[in-house]
Each structure stands twice: as structure tokens, then as C-alpha cells.
Amino acid sequence: MGVEFFVEMVTTVPPGTSDDEVAEMRARESARAAELAAQGHLRRLWRPPLKPGEWRTWGLFSAAGPDELEAVLASMPLRVWRHDTVTPLTPHPSDPG
């Protein structure tokens, strides 16, 4: 894996979706996130400050390039309810890492 990507993920649950359906989707998403982390694709997740009713997550992903990242994001169950904004990251000359 070579490139890191910052991804803002905004989820909008369709009207009429039951609480049970949301819970099941979240469970599937959690399991897939664990798999992606084990594979080295999902590096970190953050919960930014949220407005009431907002469902948004920031993630740091690693992939060989944009095509692989798209495959990774598409494999996540919540993607059907989600809009992703992807920002490729490059190292800063003063990065202590």
C-alpha cells in the first residue's frame, strides 16, 4: 500500500428505514471495517463534531491508488447510504513520522 487518503463519509439513512435495519447495517459495517483494518486499508476513524441528527465520519485509508481505494470504499456496506469525499494525502517535508 502506498498512498494515504483522507475520506469524509456522510451517511444519510433513507426515510422509512427501520431501527433494526440501521442496526444490522451498522453491524455489517463494523465487521467490514475490522477486515479492512486487518488488511491495512483502514488506518484510523474519527468522529468529528456533529450537528443533531448528522451521521459523519472521517477516515484515514491506505491503498495502492485511487482505483483500489474506490474498491475498498465500495466494499463497505454503508456505502449505499453514504457520500464520500476523498482527499489524497502527500507527506509534508516537516512530518515527524
Level of helix content?
25-40%
CATH architecture: 2-Layer Sandwich
The total beta strand count reads: 4
Q: Helical element count? A: 2
Shape call: globular
Within CATH, the superfamily carries the name Dimeric alpha+beta barrel
- Report the CATH C-level class: Alpha Beta
CATH topology: Alpha-Beta Plaits
Taken together, the total number of domains comes to 1
H/E topology pattern: EHEEHE
Enumerate the strands of the largest sheet in spatial order, edge to edge or round the barrel: 2-3-1-4
Give the N-to-C terminal Cα separation. Answer: 17 Å
Mean pLDDT: 95
Gyration radius from CA atoms, angstroms: 14 Å
Describe this structure in words.
The chain has 97 residues and is an alpha+beta fold. The protein has a single domain (3-41, 49-55, 62-89), classed as 2-Layer Sandwich (Alpha-Beta Plaits), CATH 3.30.70.1060. The protein has two helices and four strands. It has helices spanning 19-38, 66-74, and strands spanning 3-11, 42-46, 56-63, 82-89. Strands 2-3-1-4 form a four-stranded antiparallel β-sheet. The chain is globular.
